[in-house]
Amino acid sequence: MTTVHTPTQQHTTENRIPMHLLSNDHLSVALDDGVLTATLRRSDVGNGMDRVLADSLTSFAHDVVEGAEVGSVRVAVIRNEGFGFCVGGDLAHFSNATDLPAELQYVAETIHEAIKVLIAAPVPLVTVIDGVAAGGGVGLALAGDIVIGTPATKFKMSYTSVGLSPDCGGSWFLTQRVGLGRALEITLTDRTVGAEEAERIGLVAPVSPPEADLDDTVRAVTARLAAMGTDSLGTTKRLLRSSVTTELADHLDEEARQITRLSATADAAEGVRAFFEKRRPAFR
User: Fold this and answer.
1) pLDDT at 7 over 60
2) 156-172, pLDDT tens digit by residue?
3) Is residue 220 within 8 Å of 226, Cβ to Cβ?
4) What is the pTM assigned to this prediction?
5) φ and ψ of 45, to 5 deg
6) DSSP per residue over 222-262, as a string?
7) What is the model's pLDDT at position 2?
8) How many CB atoms lie within 10 A of CB 229?
9) Got the DSSP string for the chain?
């Protein structure tokens, strides 16, 4: 695996990924066979969110988009070191802030920017939840197009127990995945959702089995995605994401436009040839 340690600058050369983010003690970034992985590495505080982590995630999100544009990035991954995926805000950081509302606003809005960019990115985002996702960590986890769980996976919204309301998209993503009634019950009561329930109600899939190596599970998922046509994946992701806010008639029109457009691409021609030749397609 090639770990990226690149100065904070934008490169215009098309044969290299434009990297803004220098790996740091909050977030490490690695590029391997078209898969750009960000690993949350504040394990001593449950990968809690502070200003540095928020800035780092936003830089990573922009790197994903720019890498996709030059063909260097085909899949993005966010995962964690340590016992928790992300416990939400770093309470020690916020308790030391001279202006708590201002600091909270900065961190939340910066994380929100990262999530917006990743949701709109033309490549799939895979999140790997090995441990607890709480507070803002729930939104970050569920932003994944594919959310991989483990036996240690737990979700806890954590807001109502401390007199706050959701951020980082948690209330939106949770509702979209499990429905309004169940989302209200989980969030208002602030109960913990374990791995078995999370898989059953659609928060995670797949769940890496106890006897499997998590890295092998992640590689299997990301390698499958990286081998697919990026235009097809990006268009499909966009159609599925927009379906929750688009009227059916408008959505059908957009589906017709996109499948017609894709049918004229080299990847579609290769896919059809491979089907008849009974082999795996070699997409660009």
Assistant:
1) no
2) 999 999 999 999 999 99
3) no
4) 0.90
5) -125, 30
6) HHHHHTS-HHHHHHHHHHHHHTTTS-HHHHHHHHHHHHHHH
7) 40
8) 20
9) -EEPB--SS----TTS----PBP-SSEEEEEETTEEEEEE--GGGTT-B-HHHHHHHHHHHHHHHHHHHTTS-SEEEEEESSSEEE-SB-HHHHHT-SSHHHHHHHHHHHHHHHHHHHHH-SS-EEEEE-SEEETHHHHHHHT-SEEEE-TT-EEE--SGGGT----TTHHHHHHHHH-HHHHHHHHHHT--EEHHHHHHTTS-BSB--TTS-HHHHHHHHHHHHHTS-HHHHHHHHHHHHHTTTS-HHHHHHHHHHHHHHHHTSHHHHHHHHHHHTTS-----
Q: Which of 234, 232, 270, 214 is nearest to 39 (CA)?
A: 214
* Residue whose tokens read 């004229």: 264
**CB burial readout 61-88, b (16+ within 10 A) else e:** bbbbbbbbeeebbbbbbbbbbeebbbbb
Tokens of 220: 């299997």
Q: For residues 18 and 66, is the Cβ–Cβ distance under 8 A?
A: yes
CA distance 134 to 186: 12
Residue 5: DSSP 8-state = B
